[in-house]
Amino acid sequence: MTTPVASLDPSLATAAARPRLAALPPPSAAAALLVTKEKNRADPSKSGSVLLQVCLQHQVKYGEHVGIIGSAKELGAWKQHVKLDWSEDGWVCQLELPGEAAVEFKFVIVSKGGNDKTWEGGDNRAIQLPKGGTLDIVCNWDKTEEPLGPSGTPKVDRAPKHAAPQTVGDVSAANLAPETDSSSFGGQWQGSEAVFMRSNEHGNKSSDRMWDTAGLGGMALKLVEGDKSSKNWWQKLDLVRRLVSEPVDDQSRLEALICSAIYLKWIYTGQISCSEDGGHYRPNKHAEISRQIFRELEKMYYTKGISPEDVLVIRKIHPCLPSFKSEFTATVPLTRIRDIAHRNDIPHELKQEIKHTIQNKLHRSAGPEDLVATEAMLTRITKNPGEYNGAFVEQFQIFYSELKDFFNAGSLFEQLESIKESLNDSGLEALSSFVKTKQSLDQVDAANIQVVMKTLQSLSSLRSVLMKGLESGLRNDATDAGIAMRQKWRLCE
After folding, report:
1. Which of 122, 157, 398, 423 is most buried (CB neighbours < 10 A)?
2. Which parts of this chain are annotated as the region Disordered (predicted)?
3. For domain 1-15+41-156, which CATH number applies: 3.90.320.10, 2.60.40.10, 3.40.50.150, 3.40.50.1820?
């Protein structure tokens, strides 16, 4: 299993929901995350056995890890817990258990050093295993009564995914994706849930946060120290800008990139929260800082001695930077939400919620949590078709699309749509071919090697177009519009 550089075991870190900011590992430890680790996997085809794949979605404190313990001997027979591994999806493990067995289990949080255990509350979790095959279980801490579906996954109501387009037609003229595709990081969000408010209730969320710098040095120490005075998103972005602008040698450059990638990923997923400091900066402030960071990263691509590790980590940073297209660097960007909040065809209470939860917050101190709140509001107003004025819903969907664009959180097809105008005829042909083959691949029920190969070939052709366009460095006299389009090309590549 390859662990992405922007994902760390929470036993080394602390999420925003907890009152301590994680101390980042030294560069050698962080770089080790890039190494592919082979793990033994149980064979679900073995007669009479079941491969149980467990995932627990829960955050723990600094130095802690999660274990599972239960009635079966494979689960420690209630004596010794089995340690779970951290992944982007949560705490996971694979267990080979006897088929048709009735198993009871619970999760425990093990303290740093392993001396203390905290058991989740409630009754024991119970599951009846099938005869054989694979069973996936996704659980939530303390929710021991949550029902399990046929596949083992808890039955939960999720925000509806908007359907992908069925046909594309001429890619040079057609949209590649609907405006209301879900954002790319909404499903990864681990921060606080959106709370609709009718007055300014955005408090200082970091007042009780602690910064542990024990054992830190170099760029990691500078990052943690810098975060003490960086409450909101633009200040955290500016901290990253200073980090990536400072390195003077290969080692410090890689260290700065790794720390920045991890830090930005944690911010984008809500593990490090952003709070207000009483200032008032519109999103154009964030966009300008993002452009400066992007320029520094582009310089690194063409620096003598740049390593594959450097390039890999830079690729992790790009999706966590906001867009700096002209509409976002304007003096007053994202004004559509202001017009929406002043409409006369929606209830007063809803207007107040949009105004205080999204509009004022976004224009005063923007952060990734604003996209999460907007997604939640969109789900709410589209839940019952006809409940709200159609024109209002349409305008809100357009705003949601604009906000995703600002956060660079669009789907693959939305990102490809954004670069369409900059492609020449051969590029448009490669794009059209990829879109068509990808849609064909999505529609086949079983693995079709011919469709898979066609999709891979068209993907390679499109990527070669993008790589050719990016092979020369960023010109010193490049226009702002040109740099913004180059950012989109990087994201698509």
Report:
1. 423
2. 143-188
3. 2.60.40.10
